[in-house]
Records
---
Amino acid sequence: MPLELGGSGVGATPSWLLRAGLSSCAAASIILAAATEGIELTALDVRVTGWLDVRGIHGIAGAQGEPASAGPGDIQHFVRICAHGVSAERLRALVDKGTRRSPLPFAVLNATPLAVHIDLDAALCRQTKSPA
């Protein structure tokens, strides 16, 4: 967890992993779309940025008293792409097609519902020591 949330600040945060997953999944799908269309990419760089309002994680209201969102905000997807002899319009269409066919970006773009299943395992609770 990050230092701001009481963690050590070492390692990747869940939000970082989400952005890494979005960018790598989109890149793979763009490459597949290019291969399907016979386009040989000479460069592809996919980067995803975003921010997180930590007030939402802690249940703290925003400045106007509204609930702060616990989810990532303002996710930006940046793609640098090049293929010799391929028009800018075709490359834009390729990126759009690849991104929309990519599982993780598709899930974010379409707000895939999340079902939460809770298992209250009494046996597991008995095996776990209580903090002293």
---
Amino acid sequence: MCSLWLLLYTKMRFYNIIKRIILFVSIFLLTTSLKKGEEQTAANNLLYAQPIDSAIARNIDMDSCIIGLNIHKTWSFDYKDETFPNDTICECVIKGLAIESDSVFYIIGGNPAFIAKYNGTTLLNRKRIDIDFDKSYNALCQIYDDSVYFISEQNKVIYSLDNKFNSSATAYNLPMEAEDSIVSGRMEHDSYILVTQKKNTHGTNSANFTTWHFCYPNHIKKKYTEETNLYAHIPGYVPLREPENNFFYHGIIDGYRLFLTPPEYDNCSIIVADASGDCIYKDTFKQLPPIAAVSGYEEHYGALQSENLRVVSKNSLYMTGYNNDTHQFYILEYRIFK
């Protein structure tokens, strides 16, 4: 009898040991399988993961330093005032704008033409310049060293005037032929670029373009025949990597490239791009003048709005416009970055 109980007890111990071994092996196999599954999932995630878009990464950083397109400062001038350099017959027409510092402006206009220097809205100085600007539609004006430079397009002459208006304007003829007509231009702080088109014997423009790159006052740096790309030769310019319709280059702010659409009443957009031409910020202006500043009137095209009346200076963008009901000319400063 004892032998029988001993035999049964031995078998039960043996079965329990076998069950424990089976349970241990099962747990081990299950754990190994789960771990392999996690490793495979991680491997699959690495295999199919898309790299973070560099523009998105930049935008994450940009969000902390972009202010947006709200107006930082506004200056308004009564353009009907006799001291303001404007041809009052044609509402508000400006033939040049240069910005020396945060709130020091030079404005050219009127018939006869005057140049006025302002600190904010306070008139510092005003000087008559007997120069014909009637058909100077590009509003070419810039500060270089201690002088203001401006161009009479119909005469193909660049003028310089010391920034205190102590002397008369000095004229420098541009080395162009009589049949060359200036059709566009851009003045930078160290050089300027003009695009000309030759007129044929009937007085109409042919397709013969030339792009001129000058050092101040009138020294040819480079001449590009049969070319109309004004922006390609501006220092620091890069095209948008993904071009968008109607956006034009306007300069560099805090190392970033600025592109604008021509303002049409309350509609104007901006693109900020990096040095590779990738868009990192795009927005639409919420605050604009009632009417963008006008640089002249042409028989076939009507009111003309020169891109040179939208100025990038240091780390700000300045937009200009007017209100023909209140007779106010506006300069609006936008600071895109903190």
---
Amino acid sequence: MFFLFLRHMVKATQRVSKKIALAFDFDDTLVPDTYDGLLESLGLDFKQFREEKYEALKASGWDSIPARFFSLVEISESEEEKDISITRDYLAEFGRNLRPFDGVEQMFDRLRQRAHSLIPDVELEFYLITSGFVEIARHTSIAKHFKAMWGCEFHYKENGEVDRLKRSLTHAEKPRYLYHISRGVDQSSEQDLLFVYKDVPHEDLAVPMSHIIYVGDGTSDIPCFAMLNQEGGTSIGIFKSESPEDWASEYQPTQSQRVDNLAPADYSEDSEMMQSLLLAVEGICKSIQLEKLSKNE
């Protein structure tokens, strides 16, 4: 009995966080695949290009991310394709014309409204963590909703043409940015990198891991699924095939990599994905209310 009383007193000294963070992958999660879409916009057969360029690089030992970026640099510089030039402005325009999946543009306000109906002063923060082209994401119609966006970036020549890969964000590095969110770090300097792995008292966390929801579509997101399972967060997977069973068969997640729900990439009002997100936000709001009640706040 004394132990339970002492435990309650320790908990009572911790402040209750009223922040909820929703982190999303980008390609095939909020929008169609931007690599294939970019190739199509250039007038290329993306299936043929993938096989002859991208897959050929990987077969020769390249990692997938540098292979993707180098294949675009190579085609932009190609003497055989003189009418193709991939520039900073071209990527920005591609982003502006990119159409998210159904309901994505309305999703942010729907989630805010549901959360504020339960806790008026709760804060919802949205983040993007992608191993794809964050420079494209920054110019989309939904970019304004994100507090921070992390991903891969090009270095450009003086004329604005793509030159080489400047910043890479691998699949295994994605969970690091969940630590960034939890600790309130917006940048990714070496000093920040050291800080995000240090132990931080619960009351000093910007967003507890149990208040983080992560949404992703596949292999690149499994490290985040696994981390949030361990830390008490919420993971929602997206499947593109006919059934959730096909998704599980393709990616073969282990028990520690499971997701709380699988749904198609449809965010319209009555969709399973939207209902999943609303329930996840509601669940965190109710846990905040319970925690506040236990501390008499």
